[in-house]
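Entry:
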Amino acid sequence: MATLKYSRQRESIKEFLMTRKDHPTADVVYENMKKIYPNISLGTVYRNLSLLSEIGEIQKLSNFGSADHFDGCVEPHCHFMCTTCGDVLDLETEGMDDLIEKAGRNFSGKITACDIRFFGTCPKCMNK
């Protein structure tokens, strides 16, 4: 694979995601990048999010019932989606490797990863 040319905008998008725990959509990333790069286009943000996801620098979270969300943490962890407000949050979990091992006991293939999603009401909505 060819070496990827450095991009300040792409690096800024990655850094922005690394500071977040709320898994923003591309539109939220775009609105925040416009503050730094007033001339950045939504297409540039989408292309960079797609590229960062493809090369494993960020996670793209799809199928949460709405727009894709993006996560700067690529370490194995679970996610929670609030069915009231739609926020997607990290769940700090232990034992992901144990879960993969247990799931593989009755499976003749090889499990290399898992993606666990929980749904319910977040603390913010519970306190309303």
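The chain has five helices and five strands.
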